[in-house]
């Protein structure tokens, strides 16, 4: 399968590294130098312009949400058969359906994950829009090397990631403010408390690998939630 990848930000670069060597991959980024350097590193090809990317069978859009629909509108003008896969969390399947005009078709593939963690080797859960079935299966086969693929309503990932991000950031801000209130002003100490202690405990909780002290805290919190 010939695959195009548009957008080489954090997620785009992670996907390029995961997909390189598993078929023919061609990348495009408005910063052409970035695309050329990555292409040389991964032994893949780089498109000179966006119009060239439609020569691929499938194009993945790893773009900011405001650019995704504009890109699809451009593909519509080219009147060429193309499957477009959107990975931007906040672009809905309905928006894809309403924007893509045959022979361009679009499907959402969303990551319950973080680009930085994926770059370190952690595999995300990937939710592939379940309909239409033929596009869903195509997308699932493409992304199985990247993480754990599930079929469902890809739009629910926006809710999941939003809730997780808000809770994590609330905790980070609260930790910083609490430490400063208690007289801790050293920036390295505060950052380490957030980056290592808090993040490490969150990972341990997700992996069912909490220590005795942390487990007691969880038990206490569960009692409060249940009452």
UniProtKB/TrEMBL annotation:
Q: Which InterPro entries match?
A: NAD(P)-bd_dom_sf, P5C_Rdtase_cat_N
Q: Which Pfam families match?
A: F420_oxidored
Q: Which domain of life is it from?
A: Bacteria
Gene3D superfamilies given in the database record: NAD(P)-binding Rossmann-like Domain
In this chain the Pyrroline-5-carboxylate reductase catalytic N-terminal domain maps to: 3-86
What is the designated name of this protein? NADP oxidoreductase coenzyme F420-dependent
Q: What is the lineage of its organism?
A: Bacteria, Bacillati, Bacillota, Negativicutes, Selenomonadales
């Amino acid at each position: 399968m010939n695959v195009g990848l548009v957008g080489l930000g954090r997620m785009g670069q992670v996907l390029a590294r995961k997909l390189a060597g598993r078929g023919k991959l061609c990348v495009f980024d408005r910063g052409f130098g970035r695309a050329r350097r990555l292409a040389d590193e991964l032994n893949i090809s780089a498109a000179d312009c966006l119009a060239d990317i439609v020569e691929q069978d499938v194009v993945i859009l790893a773009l900011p949400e405001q650019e995704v629909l504009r890109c699809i509108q451009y593909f519509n003008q080219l009147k060429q058969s193309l499957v477009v896969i959107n990975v931007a969390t906040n672009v809905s399947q309905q928006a894809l359906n309403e924007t893509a005009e045959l022979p361009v078709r679009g499907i959402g593939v969303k990551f319950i994950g973080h680009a930085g963690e994926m770059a370190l080797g952690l595999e995300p859960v990937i939710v592939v829009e379940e309909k239409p079935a033929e596009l869903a299966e195509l997308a699932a086969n493409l992304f199985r090397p990247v993480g754990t693929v599930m079929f469902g309503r890809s739009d629910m990932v926006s809710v999941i990631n939003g809730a997780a991000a808000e809770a994590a950031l609330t905790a980070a801000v609260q930790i910083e403010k609490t430490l400063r209130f208690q007289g801790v002003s050293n920036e390295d100490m505060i950052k380490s408390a957030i980056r290592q202690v808090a993040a490490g405990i969150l990972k341990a909780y997700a992996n069912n690998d909490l220590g005795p002290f942390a487990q007691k805290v969880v038990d206490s919190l569960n009692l409060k939630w249940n009452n």
